[in-house]
Amino acid sequence: MDQIAGSLRRPRSAPGHICQIPPRSLGLSSMASQSTKNSNRRDQELAKNITPNDAPALASSFFKEGNVTPRRFEKEEALNVATSEPVLMFHPVDAVLKKHEMEMPLRQWIAHDVQESAINRGRIYQVTLQKASTLRKVTISYAIAKLLQHLSFNFQITQYSNSELQRLCCIDNFAVRVSNEQTELGWEVTGVDMINPPVHLQIMTEVYLSCNFFDVVSDEAFTGRTIMPNIISTYATPSDSGDSTAPNDESMLCHFLGLLLHGLFSGVDLVRIKPQALQVDERSYENEPLAKKSSERFCHVRGPDFSRSISVSGSVSKNSHGEEPVDVDLPCPLSTIGYSTSLSHVVTDLVDCGLGLFRSGGSYPSLEMAIADLCLLLEEPGRFLFEDFRLSQEGERIISCGKGNSRLYGRTAEAHLITDTFCRVASTGESEAFLIGGFSGTSLSPCRCGKTRLVQSVFEAVEAVDGLVVVQKFDEVSTLSPSSVVMSAFNELCLLVAKRSTPQELHAIYENLIVEFGANFHVLARALPNVLGMLSSCNASPFAKNETDDFNLANYSSLCFTLQRFMRVISSASRPIMLFLDDLQWADRRHIYTDDHAFCAAASLGLVHAVLSDMKGKSCMLFVGTYRDNEVGPDHIIFGFIKMLSQFNVPTSKIRLDGLTESDVNSMVSDAFRTLPRLCRSLSQVVFRKTNGNPYFVLEFLRSLVHRDIVKFCLRERRWKWDEAKVSAENITDNVLYLLSNKISGLSACTQTALKCASCFGIKIEKSIAQKLSCNSDYINLHSSLDDAVNGGFMDFDGTHYRFVHDKVREAAYDLINADFKDQFHFELGMAMHSSRVYKDSADALFVTIEQINHGVPSLLIGTSHQNAVAELNYEASVKSMHCANFTSAFDYIKAAVSLLSGDSWTTHYTVSLKYYLQLGKAAIPCGFMDEAKAALNKIIDGGKCLEDKIDAYFLLTAMQSCGTHTDEEIDMCVHVLRLLGEDIPTEGLELCQIVSAVNKTKQLIELESDEALLQMTKIRNNTRKIENIMKFYGHLGLISWFVTPKMHAFYMARFAHFCLKSQVGCKYLPSAFVAFGACLCNGLTNETFVGYRIGKIGLMILNRSELDMDEASKVYLAYYRELGVLFEPIQACVDMHRRGYEFGMQVGNTSLAGLHLCLAVHREIISGKKLQLLKAEIEFYLKLARQHSLTALKVLMQIYYRNVLTLIGEQLTCPVQQIQGTQYEEIDCTQEMMSSFFSGHFDRVNYLSKKWEASSDNTKLKVPIRVISVAFYTGLATTKLHRTKGFKSKQSLQHVWKKLLPVLVKAEEFSKWNFKHKASMLKAEYLSLTFKRDKAELEYECAVSSARLSKFIHEEGMACELAGMHYKHHGDKAKALELFCRAQKCYEAWGSQMKVDQMIVHQKDLL
């Protein structure tokens, strides 16, 4: 031993090396450890080429330079990988030795600890001190074991004699360093030193507690400590230390370590017993199996008192020196003096390592395994170190898997995957989805290993980066609709934002929401009431007015759009959101929208999809959903949802959770029985084979074993014992519900009834409901029986709700109700709540009550005295649901109310029937149930007594769109109603002269009024409901006639404006009348265009002066900027107003109107030269939006624009454009193809399309101004191009350009130089160039280039440069032509047209 110490001894000032072990991962995310990884990256690079022989020199150099390298020896690296610890790191000694420490011999420290324990103190304080002392002793034990492992690893000390190893592991060979400052709980240990050889270990502890580690006595409060030991050796590693790869037998080292630890914990010297006390005849075991030898000899050695002594013989455990046996003591178990069974096992099994053939089966095969167990004692003292068995409840409590335990079994990789996804969302600011499938039963909350627990494990990491987590759960029989569950999640988000934000941040959110929603903030407040609570300090109440329009009710699309706009403000990269929805298999299956049945989405998941699929970068949310994949078929709505996410390019991750591995099951069994994992491995193997790793089966199987005493607690030994043969012979069912049903069947009748009642409400039931039901004679014991269910472990109680511990428990309780009488059971429960007037407590209580009653509607209510009352409750619930934007529930409630009406209700209950059927129509339309809506509204039209009672039904019928297109039926319906209201509207088409007469008559009437007089009409005078209805139907007629009957559009709008002027009624429909009529006067770019602009501008001013109505504002913007604004105002500004009109249309749920605004916005962007690649991505998103909302018109127009954009880029459309009937669509297609054909060089095609458009417009008599200008522009340029390129000399063609086409552009220039000056200049220049007026032509070319650049029409600037270049090329000025072609190329590159760039390159090459 002295030789060893001499060879290792070095001066204390020499540099040393440190074994640095950081804290074990406690399930924290990769995001939380990223900084650690970054800090170690440089050190890892430095250490790549270090060899063992370089260690001493490197240690010295690193000491001088202050550097660190993490590598040392290959064997060290292998060991560190096996123990999940990092490699050794070199540090200077002074870097870890502390100045504020004092050192004392270990024996002295033990004596002091014994003295402290002997002092009488208060019971609680005494228990706390004992726990502190035990934890310090385990810390010292761990440190000593690490020191011995260090020596064993670097030197072949296991080859030395027993006597040398015994001296090495002697208590007197160790000293303890403690802090100078003694706390109330004693001195904290800061280090452990081995005296000979001199090796030092600095202890750094990290305790994971929410409070002071020893402030509480409860075991559940202890979450453990992690030791980070730094081992400092003041000697150099010898180069001749032998073969480091040779296997070491550490049995005797472990044995002597066990003796040392026993002395450390017992605090008394061992009493030596003569070795002759043990006499065993080796020959009696010669022919026995080794297992039997070990077992029988183990029992013989220990006996009942376990205090006998043995002689460790060389024949039994002979060392390399073959020396004489060493007398040792076989100590008594530490459990006999009050220590935990786990700690006792660790020490006893260490001692057993030196018993040779007498060693027990549980003895340690290596020192490393003992260190792992000591580490477990430190990390989880509540389970392994501080036992507190409660025998009266042990059978149930012990199988709880440690309530409060945050451990995640077997799901670490999946947890990191979720965390990494959230990190990506937070860093990119773009939303993603993460879906987790798995069999039912794997998400039992106490198991800490299922789908739900997996997601919960990342919450801490999300909140660490200021993320917000919102959780909701779908329920199979919940009284809330699935869409309400999603809305509740976003509603809770408001409160969470308020809680986690500063007043300054909340004020910024408030301002952004006001900017986003404006005067319609009340729409958001109606959908998410908690937004007012979130902004309570910002005085948001004045914006939260509760006003609704009877006929412009928000629908499902508007709800989606509201959530999108809300999340644009709330979520960001600095405030990422995680939305977790559990049990998606119970999301509703209502198809709110479809596209040729290609895909569908539930109302609830559609809301989530709306946020995720918002335009890229608009929202920052990670959606996590879990579902039972064994309970969903291939046609389940989840897969439609996934397909929709894919079609909208939302990044989506999917994983599936299988059963646990054998190692994970061993961890579960260990935690359940509070037994070290290695001691219950054999039992875990049997359990794993029986359960296939299903965590729910594992727990239930263990509970059944405990219940039948196959696994039982031994009080004398204070540990769990089992018979593996009996466990192996046990059978386990694979039916979870059968297992639970049998268990519940053993409860009392009252408790079973309580569980059945609670199961009817879903996963939870409110305490207040249980209390009120207990007042009913049929449920008198409900409240107390629910408490019994809590005590039995079937439910939990959080103070306000009784909640089932797992879905499967609720399902088992629900299955106890006879399937044939379940509806009746629900109905009786609901009627008991009705008699107790539970529904009067709140809106939620109303929904809960009526959901139970409706199980018996109508079969159990028809003919009873409660029939009318229940019908009225359903109507009330429907109205409240509509107010909360819960449309599907509103529809279900009112449908139940209608089912309770009698067959002659229109005679006996006329008012009620009218009210119910109108509500049914209103509720069906937002859900997209058009057939149900039409049937209900037609009932009113057929059964109504007067037009006033029918008028609302008529308007709802006319406002319903079919697949996003308008039909002749709507026209006929509007005309029919207007005639019923007294308007003399012809039912057949009129001659052109009649239309012109009506237009002139109205124009003259307006010209008689001054602008101020027209603006004064905003004041309401002599207003009647009839007049408003007439104006409302005229307005709708104008909207649809523009598409369906363009010939009659001007007539209808003339009558509309004429009626407003005659009635002198100011209402919200007045601006639409003036703007629509003004747009009609612009037809064909006549001199009346300025008159139309004046009238339209007045209508726009009236709109701005009155209180904003989003529906009417969207219609006004459509008419004004479609016809007038595009002529007189910059086209880029028109794009912004069309986008605003789109937002208004979506907000009120008028998706058809919103789609028209999108189409016009994209068209204006195309003709104004927006970058083509941006347009391509934008149109692709709108095409998906059109499919999502079943907007056929939007889809067709976007396909037309998409084809045009691809052609301009130089790409080809792979799928054909869908055809749709209608002159307007044909003309739009024609003008778009003219543009792409011209830029492609197909000038003959342009002329052909021009003639086609001319014939179409002559037929309809509707010449949309912007189309007239576009056709004249491209036709004129195509004609001049044909003259230049093909040598046409037809003067008639040029005269056509000069006399017919050029005047159109000159007239347009009068309206807006910004939009049309460069176009007129280009056509003039081309004409002058071909007529040999070179100087004038060149001036016009320059004017066209500068005007296009000033107006930011980049594509037409390039066109002007190209045309000018062709002119100079024709006249032989190659230098000027080359310059212009280069400028054109740059413009086309900025525009994004590779096709035109290639053409310019060809032109330049021709000149070189």
UniProtKB/TrEMBL annotation:
Chain positions covered by the region annotation Disordered: 1-44
Superkingdom in the source lineage: Eukaryota
Coiled coil: none
Bias (Polar residues): 27-38
Residues in Orc1-like AAA ATPase domain copies: 407-589
Listed name of the protein: Orc1-like AAA ATPase domain-containing protein
Native organism: Cyclotella cryptica
